User: Which sequence fits this backbone?
């Protein structure tokens, strides 16, 4: 059994920087139905193609009038107008309004031609076909011109923006059925190791169920990517190389798990340099030290350790930002919030940075870390914190900057509690 | 044109409380592939069905030995053992270890029977088939018993928990292919109004493109529900009632939009009481005042105003928490964070509460609110804040508690920036 040694370990910031430089934002786009575009990244700026609404509308329920008719109206001497019709939101009064006439209009209805103001129902007396107007109506009262919602050319969506419910509604209001978005990055996940079992297989001594593909798939989805999981590849450098080469043309990034360290059966450190330029092997972080990355053609290939908790920690601070960058997502990869520790944490190897997966109970964070070989350290983790190299411990009650993949679970209570 | 008046307006907290009481958590469950379970709500507690791993394993690369053989080992007088085999992660040494023997083992490999400790490669001298052990190996060194990851019975997932990447990995590591989850709530969205156009239709005076279904669909998806959008129903009470009755049996909640106010063509206030018990009509909030809700059978029916920005505001503080409750989602409906206003805000009707949709630029929040009839107030909104009744204004630079539907977009910089 041969062992090699790691070269100099790379600080995690520098490892992340090299991977992010190599992670090229994709340029593929696709037309997405507006109804399915929630959270997608717009590839083009979109502006209103015409005035919305296209007509002058009433902004209140009332009577559309010619303001000139009401100039002399006083409480003591009301002006009497004849009601010649009514217009609901979808209708249209068929002819121009004549002197002495009024038309009942609903909010949002098109104003009759010739009408230049609206007086609200509450302000008039109605008697049969007549309304008595007790004060002058000013030009433009309770009405709005074409383009009041969106004048033609209004920016609805900027290129590179994540589509919100609000932006989707604005696109729909302007009549758009689809919107051009960047494609979701395709992320191939290739586990390797003879010991890996697929679900349903019978456990044997020395064998374990493959679980990294599930964790990575979820993180890839959270990052807006499309995970593509390959069956486990045996511990054979030729087969691993062939699997990576086969996946590359149709992938935006390839994640290989297992065999990333320095042992005899750790083939990735020998295979990746055959595919392209090695960026590094070995990061000064625990868990996750045996991680490597290469650029093959213009694509990033990352070798992640097979230990499930190492793979989880790496998925947070490597996979999530890398896939988000390739998918051109703006903004941060996680929700940052300071949190107090419920129990102290010791850095197992203080000369390395420490990634601490965090669980949250009663508003306090707890390390879920038991050791890099322990899968149970993962259960309950919703985010993580990083201790820099040299930091030996964090005391109970100390505050840490935490990065949450999912929003932290807060205290109970109604959603409006605390709004004042 | 008839007008009715609102009765007493309900405070928004009370309106929300009544709807949340009527929103019954669903009990339908379904079996979901673990690979697709990200963010789903577990319906049952799941624990480890057996010890994981099922065997005693080495936790380091090295030589598995019988500790008794090494008791007399000293640096000056090493104990020489014969290497009789090697075990990689998936293998198994075929017979018990005899006195004076060692087996090379990789991290994670099953320990040979009879071996009770591991000495790491770096600590020994290897010469052909021999290793020289320079110190005693203690019982249990560098090895772990069956169940080291998960002893049989370990809790993997609690009932009612949202599945994280970490929990999904733990389920996969225990060999689970599927997990029982609560169904996604089916949310029917029924727009009504003669003025509503579907995408592709030619705009006419008085007509507008239906957009609330798109906004609501996105918010329903964000809440973990499945939106089901109906085509617009004409302004006819019988047709509206028929559409609502038809949707109810296969829906967990029904959202009707438009016609929720007090005008002649506002049919929902007359239709909803025919379906069940009216909870309220009219909320002391702006925008969103003309909102009503009823319980039909055991199901909630909510009538939302047709003005797109009113509908958006209501989707945040009504639809999101209601759908989350029906889907049994734990935790808050949005990410709360205080934010400073970049520009002052005036409450348009200070006797009512004000819901302010917020956009974020350069770390400051701006009201996206232009008036309840303006759709453009929606563009860019990613969250909201609430001013309580009586609050007339917020000054520029003042801090507000904001509720973000999507994580707020923070300043740029590398994802690890500021961790150090």
Assistant:
């Amino acid at each position: 059994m041969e062992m090699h040694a790691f070269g100099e370990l790379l600080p995690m910031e520098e490892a992340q920087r090299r991977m992010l430089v190599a992670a090229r934002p994709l340029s593929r786009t696709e037309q997405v139905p507006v109804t399915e575009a929630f959270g997608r990244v717009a590839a083009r700026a979109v502006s209103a193609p015409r005035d919305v609404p296209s007509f002058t509308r009433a902004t209140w329920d009332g009577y559309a009038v010619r303001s000139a008719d009401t100039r002399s109206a006083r409480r003591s001497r009301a002006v009497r107008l004849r009601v010649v019709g009514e217009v609901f939101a979808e209708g249209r009064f068929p002819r121009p309004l004549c002197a002495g006439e009024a038309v009942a209009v609903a909010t949002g209805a098109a104003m009759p031609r010739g009408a230049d103001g609206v007086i609200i129902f509450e302000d008039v007396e109605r008697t049969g076909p007549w309304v008595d107007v007790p004060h002058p109506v000013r030009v433009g009262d309770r009405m709005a011109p074409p383009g009041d919602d969106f004048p033609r050319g209004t920016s609805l969506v900027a290129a590179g923006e994540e589509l919100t419910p609000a932006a989707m509604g604005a696109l729909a209001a302007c009549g758009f059925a689809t919107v051009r978005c960047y494609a979701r990055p395709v992320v191939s996940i290739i586990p390797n190791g003879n010991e890996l079992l697929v679900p349903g297989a019978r456990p044997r001594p020395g064998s374990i169920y493959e679980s990294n593909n599930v964790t990575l798939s979820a993180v890839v989805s959270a990052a807006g990517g499309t995970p593509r999981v390959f069956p486990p590849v045996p511990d054979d450098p030729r087969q691993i190389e062939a699997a990576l080469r086969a996946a590359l043309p149709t992938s935006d990034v390839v994640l290989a798990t297992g065999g990333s360290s320095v042992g005899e059966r750790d083939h990735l450190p020998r295979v990746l340099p055959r595919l392209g330029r090695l960026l590094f092997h070995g990061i000064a972080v625990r868990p996750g030290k045996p991680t490597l990355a290469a650029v093959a053609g213009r694509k990033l290939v990352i070798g992640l350790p097979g230990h499930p908790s190492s793979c989880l920690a790496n998925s947070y601070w490597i996979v999530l930002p890398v896939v988000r960058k390739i998918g051109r997502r703006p903004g941060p990869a996680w929700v940052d919030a300071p949190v107090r520790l419920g129990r102290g944490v010791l850095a197992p190897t203080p000369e390395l940075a420490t990634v601490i997966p965090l669980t949250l109970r009663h508003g306090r964070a707890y390390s879920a870390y038991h050791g890099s070989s322990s899968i149970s350290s993962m259960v309950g983790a919703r985010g993580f914190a990083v201790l820099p190299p040299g930091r030996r411990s964090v005391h109970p009650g100390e505050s840490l900057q935490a990065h949450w993949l999912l929003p932290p679970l807060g205290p109970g209570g109604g959603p409006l509690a605390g709004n004042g």
